[in-house]
Amino acid sequence: MDEYEELSIRDKILELAQGQLFGVLCTQNNQQPYGSMIGFALSNDLKNVVFATPKPTRKYKNLTNCKNVALVVNNREKHPTDLMKIQAFTATGKAEEILKYNSQSSWVKMLVNKQSYLSEFLESPTTALFRIKIFRYFYVCSFQEVREWSPG
Amino acid sequence: MIKSEEMVIKLNETDKCLEKYVGGKGASLSRLIAHGFRVPTGFCLSTKAYRYFIETNEIDSAIKVELGRKPLAKMRWEELWDSALRIRSMFLKSNMPDTIIEDVKQQHYIMGEFSSLAVRSSAPGEDSAGLSFAGLHESILNVSGIDELINAIRVVWASLWSDAALLYRKEMKLDPNKSAMAAVIQGFQKGGPSGVGFSKDPRDAQLDQSIIEAVPGTNNELVDGIVEPDRWIISRKTKTIIDQNKGNRSNSDYSDFLLNTNEIMHLYNEILDIESKMQWAADVEWTGKGMDLSILQARPITSGNQSNKEDQSNWYLTLRPKLQKLKKLSVRVNDKLIPQIKKEGELQSHIDIGKLNDRELGELIRNRLSILKKWRKIYYDEFIPLAHGVRQLGVYYNNEVRPEDPYEFMSILEGQEMIASKRNHLMSSMANLIAINTELHEVLGNLLQDSKYRDHFDCNNLKNKLKVTSGGMDFYNSLHKLTNEFSHVSFKGENLSDDPNIYIHTILELANSIKVGEKSQLSDEESYSDITTPENKLLKAVGKNRHEEAKEIIDLGRLSWRLRDDDNILIGRLESQLLDALNLAGKRLIENGKLNQYEKLSDTTALILAEALLYPPDEIIELPQEESEDLTKLISKEGKPRQLVGQPASPGIASGTARIVQNIKDLKDFKFGEVLICDAIQPTMTHIVPLASGIVERRGGMLIHGAIIARELNIPCVNGVADAAALISNGELVTVDGFLGIVTVGEPELNLEKRDNISNSE
């Protein structure tokens, strides 16, 4: 049996997230959904995602109005011609702005460890740092196989 | 755009005949030509041409979807066969690009317009030292005309994805998506003799001897086991014949050996020369003799005491038994084995086990266990292989009709009088009786509501109530017939005959589903016009000259299907009889204080109980506990299913409440409109299928009982869903999409998270 097949769903999600720098953040405003590419970092317990965004953006405005978000991450660049091998997850949860932080803050460190180019970006007063508390994951493989898992 | 010189490579262009382009066979043949051996003239249609064909027709994407549905390691052989049939169907229906047709036409013309040709598979790596795909891919002989040639190329390319080839790749852990196939097209040398030769004995290279075999006609007769060959064993040291055997053939034209001594030694020297020039122990196919001797193939020997003990390629060849073998097997099963097992069951049914003393009962248990083991072996060795008759029909139908749905042929199997269908029809007529008789319906419904009656079937109580009910005795007599003739079977280690309420419950549910004026599902007959029945489509496609051949294959398919259903029921009967004896043994041992209790009895416990009756123990017997799987761990590890993927076994879409059926009690609880979730539908339980709105099975396969009955009854079915019964819970809403092969679990709406007050502390 393939080693990957033996992994638990938790480990599959973690491996997928660690292998990807970017995902699509889904927000909405007044029942109009919106998607944005973000550089993100996932905590090892899979309970939290951090990302940063300039404040004068649509996504920031959406987030101030509605905390409910989804994050879509996939590895399709590894399987450009084989849909059946692509893995993806949609994580749903609530986003909260972290109002006070500095370079030593654990959320900042978590993000910069993965996305080192963001360190200066985070210093700008016009940048907002967000944490998403993840409630559940919908993990997809083999095109249509979907499993739901909660990090608890 | 692919160039002609990349698609067509002549066998005598040795520098271009690289294995990655022309495959193992093509490369070997080219080297043989370069070394001066006599090889039928020809050309290769390269792996690049193959890739161009599958990409142009988008077959490559479709193959990925087929094989990506489930990890290859988890696919049963039946599921691989299904995928292979669908892939083959794609190849047969796809257009051959004009560029390929033009190049093939040109080569065909160069080879002589009226030549008979042979089209052979040639895949890279197929005949390497560690692997042997010998016989797993197809070769088509005696091809004439360009249309036949193009079609033969399609079939040979499609054989890269045959069930046997996929299974072999699975076992050898090769990635099927990296496979490619070239086709070798050569002049076909008619007549014979033909045969094989091994420069070293493939059974044991230490023996220092060579083997040559010959048959009168083509090598197919040897490979398919149709004709027994002449065989010679030659000493490598002395270069003399040390043993020879004449094949047993009825045709008197071949009363002598097919080759004389000079001809044998000439052939032998060629084989040794091949070994020397190719630098490996050679497995050679040849045809003709003397000056007409031609080499058809040469590859390294891979069988015998070779280092690759995991190579099971010979076993995979048994997955494609030829028609003649299947016909012989069907006669043996139908005329000899089925009557024997029926008789066995009848003999056992005449024994009144209640009158036996303990010793006699112990002996009986041993005897019944022995009988059951014997028939289970026959089941695996002979009944299961007979299922290939259905598959033969499938391949034959698709080759000739090229239907949109590669499983259209399955409707040819419907409507046969099998034991299970006789039972189901009887139940259907009983349901019809109740549907129009309110009083009878009420009496039976009330009885089943009464927990005292429901949990312990009371024949006298039932009879007394039915005597005073209009139509009651008709129902009672039918129930008596039903239980007498059909209920002495086991399901998951329990006897259906122990609780006839199972049938009464199902019949009531069936009655509830029947509205006045509508026909019951079981008695419906599809009305086809004469022209459009699949059977007539097939006959039309093959043409009048081949009607006899087609009817033979149809009959074999139908017989194969009927017998495979019946044999399950008949073995279920033997299992039920063993269980009767075990239950009595258990009861007596408990009464004697030698056993505390038992939950489920099985073969494992049979010998223990028999022993205890024959040689009463001093101490209380401990029966081994069956380990049950911790199913909660599975969901914890793999996540709760939202969508599960399987094989679309029967088209349609339906939603309903899930009902997991794993034992007899579950059969009794099954209600009309529920979605049946089970490990695999067995003929012993098909009576509840008409109640189901949808079916989900763990076991996969388009030709398993569940799939065929679901299609017959137009019930959406998805099978091959790994761990279905473990991942879905009773009462969950389930949607079965039999078009896409997707099972959706739970409500479609997503409840948004409602948690507030996230802490910002770090």
Task: Provide the descriptors you would attach to this structure in a database record.
heterodimer, A: 152 residues, alpha+beta, Pnp Oxidase, Chain A, six-stranded antiparallel β-barrel, 24% helix, 42% strand, globular, B: 762 residues, Dna Ligase, domain 1, D-amino Acid Aminotransferase, Chain A, domain 1, eight-stranded mixed sheet, six-stranded antiparallel sheet, 27 helices, 21 strands, disordered C terminus
Short structural summary:
The complex is a heterodimer of chains A (152) and B (762). Chain A is α+β, with helices and mostly antiparallel strands.
Tell me what the structure shows.
The complex is a heterodimer of chains A (152) and B (762). Chain A is α+β, with helices and mostly antiparallel strands and 152 residues long. Chain A has a single domain (3-149), classed as Electron Transport, Fmn-binding Protein, Chain A (Pnp Oxidase, Chain A, Roll). Chain A is built from 5 helices and 7 strands. In chain A, strands 1-2-3-6-5-4 form a 6-stranded antiparallel β-barrel. The model of chain A has no long low-confidence stretch (mean pLDDT 93). The relative contact order of chain B is 0.08. Chain B folds into 5 domains: 4-187, ATP-grasp fold, A domain (Dna Ligase, domain 1), CATH 3.30.1490.20; 194-304, D-amino Acid Aminotransferase, Chain A, domain 1 (2-Layer Sandwich); 323-414 and 535-614, no CATH class; 419-525, no CATH class; 631-745, Phosphohistidine domain (Glucose Oxidase, domain 1). In chain B, helix 4 (59-68) packs antiparallel against helix 5 and helix 13 packs antiparallel against helix 23. Chain B is of the alpha+beta class and 762 residues long. In chain B, the strands form 4 sheets. In chain B, strands 14-21-20-16-17-18-19-15 form an 8-stranded mixed sheet. Chain B has a 6-stranded antiparallel sheet with strand order 9-8-7-6-10-11. In chain B, strands 1-2-5-3-4 form a 5-stranded antiparallel sheet. Chain B is 46% helix and 14% strand. At the A-B interface, strand 5, strand 6 and strand 7 of A face helix 4 and strand 14 of B. Strand 7 of chain A pairs antiparallel with strand 14 of chain B.
